[in-house]
Each structure stands twice: as structure tokens, then as C-alpha cells.
């Protein structure tokens, strides 16, 4: 079986607009959640989010690209530039065996909302001819492929908040099956807009700590009251091991396992006892021929919602048994918020860097551990640990689950 390794990283996140800067903030445990600045939120019940700060699309991509693309595509373009440069790829070296797979949960919801208001208020003649390209989720992978001449497999996965993780797992499968030699894969999202905030707030899914935004996202804490919306993009360059060695690439880690499952239970609630996620984790371990006792770190889905965090704890306990107490676990959503379709890409990137640097990023704001979440969730302070094997978990509305297993190269 062909081996798959990670040779490049790119990130646009609320806690940093490069992979190194995002990683350093994640290690610090400083929350990037603030009051919403991109639109007037005074009439909304929730007024906080993990916005990407000071993102200048025109400066980063040029005026023409900024004008022709929506925010989630812009995030993808910037992260792709960084990841491919990090992997020492350029457009001249791309071919039919290089592809792109970016998961997006929602797409250009903000642009759809603005266009709908414009249509109602000023008529059809005012709608941009680019409205549909602004909105459709596959435009992230499509635009990146155009920019970098990635002529291999190219598509988008939309599995809610598991989109980025599924994208990485399926990209790795394409390489293992010999369909391609290199894939740029991960997740992107930019859905912070009045409509999404109002909708999630109506579901009672969001934290309402409007006066304490930096304390709002608190995975596994007894006083958590919901997730905080984030945005961004996390991309990994995956390639076949022999090719990476041949061209002298810097290898961060090997992707050795991938598991996926469905709860088949409820459109928004996780399955009972985290059973679906547990099957996904078992699948990743089985495909990578991994003994649960050998796992050193898990980047948890850890959304900061009461149900998710307790059920994910049950899933981990179910899979690992007595070994669960020996695994270091954390949720970096305490820093970034929940970046929806981008979450899996960003968190896979953090997992790879945890392996590379032998350090466990902390769970921010974990001040009062929940008795229903009794595992080692690395509260507030990063911890050095030799990390040879690590997992990254994701779940999404509709009951989709995914898990990736990464390994340090000997």
C-alpha cells in the first residue's frame, strides 16, 4: 500500500493568518474570540465570534482576485499559497497527478444573504453575475486548482463540521489507491453573518457570554454554554511517501489511519454514548494497525457544547478503556472557536504540529472540569510530551463522524 505523508501546511485562522502564528497562539491558550466587527450585531442575541483579524484580501491576493471571490475562497487561496510554498511546490511542477480537495460546510452564506436583501430592496438588476460563484462550496477547491494548475482530482466535500477531516481522509485514499501522487486537502469556511448567528442562536447552540468573549469557548468545562462560531482555512499538502523522499521534502508526519461513520440518529444531536464517533475512531485505528494504548494525543472535536463534550468523552472511553487515562487530549476550539467546515483542516494541522514539536496544545478556559468529562484534557497550559501517534476527531450535523491518525516518522 502506498504511504501518505504531510509535506506542507497552510492556515488562515482567528488566532493567526499563517500556520506558525496560529500554532503559537494555540500553544499560548489565548482565546481569539472577540465581539463581531464585520457587521452590526447590536440586535442579535449573540454578538461574539472567532473572526479572522485584519485579513486584507486585496493586499494578499490582488484587487482582481479579491473582487471575483468570496471570503471562504480567499481564505483557501491564501492558505494554499502558504502550504504549497512550505512544501516547495510551484505551478510549473504541477500536473495531472496533483489534485485539490477542500471541504466546506456552508460556503458563501454571507454573500447569499447580502444578495437576497439586495434583490428585495433594489431589484434583479443589482445582483452580481458572480453571486453563484461566490456561494457554491466547491469554488474553494476549483479556484485553488485554477491558480496552481492542479489538474488531478478536484472536488468538495460537505459533511457539516466534519468536512475538512473527510476531505483529508479521502485525499489520502486517492493517493493510496494510485489515483494521484499529491493532494492539497483540508477545510475552509467563512459563514459568520447575521443569518448564521441568528439561526444557531435560535437553536440555543451558541454561547451567550457577550460580555466575556475571551471566556466563551470553554470545551469540557462544567460552565460551558455553547460553541462560538469561527472561520478560516487549514490545508495540508499530502503526497506519496516515495515521491516526497525522492524530492527531498520536509516530512511533518505520516497519515496512517482514517475512519468514518454515521450516527444515523438525529439531524443535530450526536448519537447516544458517542457510539458513532467511537466507530470512526476504531476505524482509524484499524486502518492504521494501531494499538489504542500507543496513542499519545487526541485533538478532540470538543465544541464547548454540553452534549458534544460529554458524548465525545464517552466515545474515547469506549475505544480506549483503561488506556484513556494515559492519553493527552485537548480541544483547540477554546482558542479558535468552532470553524465549522474549516475545523477539521485547522485541527489536523495542529495535530501534525503537535507531533512535529512534541507538545500538546492546551484546552483554553478549562477552569472547572466537568465531572462528566474526567479525562486529561490539558487545561490552559501546553505540555511537552513525546508524541509518536495522534488522532484528530470531527463530527457534524447529520451525524457524520471522521477521525484521522497521524504518526511520527521513525
Automatic annotation (TrEMBL):
Q: Which GO terms describe its molecular function?
A: 3-oxoacyl-[acyl-carrier-protein] synthase activity
Family recorded in the similarity comment: Belongs to the thiolase-like superfamily. Beta-ketoacyl-ACP synthases family.
Coiled coil (residue ranges): none
Cell inner membrane as UniProt keyword: no
Which pathway does UniProt place it in? Lipid metabolism; fatty acid biosynthesis
Q: Which residues form the active site?
A: 161 (for beta-ketoacyl synthase activity)
Lineage, please?
Bacteria, Pseudomonadati, Planctomycetota, Planctomycetia, Pirellulales
Q: What protein name applies here?
A: 3-oxoacyl-[acyl-carrier-protein] synthase 2
* NCBIfam families named among the record's database cross-references: fabF (TIGR03150), PRK07314.1 (NF005589)
The enzyme's E.C. designation: 2.3.1.179
Which gene carries the instructions for this protein?
Answer: fabF_3
Top-rank taxon: Bacteria
